[in-house]
Design goal:
The chain is mainly α. It has six helices and no strands. Helix 3 runs antiparallel to helix 4 and helix 4 packs antiparallel against helix 6. The radius of gyration is 18 Å and the shape is globular.
Amino acid sequence: MGCNVPLWPFILVHIWLSVTGFQAAQAGQWVTHSYAWMNFTIVALGCWTVGQKEMKENCLMLVISLLLGFIFDIVFIAIYYQGFSCNKAVYGNCSGHSEYLWSYIMAIINCLFKIATLIIAICEYKNRGGDVPKVKASVSVG
């Protein structure tokens, strides 16, 4: 059973979500620059995977980076999120509060969208001849 969904629309959405999620980091509001490096590395690997269709190694690297990126996104969001209250010391008159919330919401959507891209990247890896092990889980009680 093959997966015939193209990968390039997912990479375009990741470009947009990475840029909008990183807007608040430029002002030093909630995430570090390592968040941007991680997401833009995933975008670069995605562009490489879309560009070279005969290789399966770049697709495997994309799968691994999406998996690690999803885990690190959860860590970044959990550590650096400060809450929805307006902090007068950070925002002054709270005019930057809406940009902070927009950036934070886009980071959450980016994190959730990585799961869909991961599934499509695994299908692409299978289509290129990659070997995905079949996991058989069994539980014995007693």
